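Quick one:
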Amino acid sequence: MKDEIIRNLQQCVGKDYLLTAPEELACYSFDGTGQIYMPDAVALPDSTKQVASLLKLANRYGFPVIPRGAGSGMTGGALPVHGGLVIVFTRMNRIIEIDPDNMIAVVEPGVITGELQNELKKFQLMYPPDPASLKFCSLGGNAAECAGGPSAVKYGVTRDYIIGLEVVLPDGRIMQTGVRTEKGVVGYDLTHLFIGSEGTLALFTRLILRLLPLPEEKTTFLLSFKSLAQATGLVSKIMAAGLLPSTLEYMDKTAVHVVRNKLTSPPADSTQALLLIEFDGSRQEVTHLSKKFTAFVQQNSSCSLRQAADAQESEELWLARRSISPATLSLRPHKISEDVVVPRSKIPDLVAFTENLAAKLNLIILTFGHAGDGNIHVNIMVDKTDKEEYARGLQAKKRLFPFVISLGGTLSGEHGIGTTKAKFLPLEISPTALSVMQGLKQFFDPGNILNPGKIFPPSRS
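Output:
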């Protein structure tokens, strides 16, 4: 990057907040995928005005701009694959407003998801989206990827709770979208166009969030199965019985194995799968659902049923569940992490397929995730230094995606497309739909300034 551009960038954010030293750039060269791409510079703005000035410079000089929250994404969305300027939103981390009367919050994109949730408890309010990385992921990154989490089965995902935005367009113009009200149908729904666009259309500088009352009570159940098929088959039966849990999580035996040390009372060695289920609501509702659920399980399954005695035991169970993803690296030093979604009734087919795939390709493949909405995380464990094994891992991914589509599923439920799934997009998106999406990108960002190399399949030209 030319000295002239560096000087202009420094004028936008100040010398202390424009990073160019190699050791500083290295801190922003990777994300949850483990891939590394060095940026040319890193800016840490603290206002919408500064973000706008950075984008105006990018348009003048034609360098790429890559937005970054906490860098916890799993598909390469925050990677500077073509170099350029990484804009990091950690300084824009203010909770601007909490309005208990109208149950909305206004926040900047660098606010940590878990910190907002803790602050809202003071008002007896909740922001439901709860990705596993909530203790360090940011709301701007959640919005860019349309993050989900265990509670999505009852409460939905990020897009269901963002009702308005302030964004900076690629040419530096600042725009407000959406409303602060429960209803609003004036004009096109630009807010939800931007949610999940992975930083390719605009940069978020402010988010207006819809909130809900904090549930009065919740209770947690752990179901242990000696049969994997029985565990996955019970999921759709639970939902069909009208038992709507706030979370319904699934773990196979390998996922259970890697987090056993997180549990003071680990399941028996013969356990093939676990279901972690939670109900919330008023005390009366939770008591009623707990009794109804216990009776249902006893009639429909021979599993072992355990109800958490208190909040501490419940938190222990959840700690184990949230620890699975990082704990898998005890099996192999690297992983190919996918978050496919299938209809709930097809979860047994998906899990059986992954088991057969692991046996055929001599790989460790574990499955876990949000069974209540069919969003299953498939982790293909590999050692990238073993070229043969890594090649088999990539082959497993290549076989997984068409099978998911054949079940009526989708390639991603919450991780997005980024770079790691871009070439597989045509499996799901028709040529016409892909052309429309690329046309939208061209309209908003004719210079291809924002996050180039993401979402769309690489050009064959």
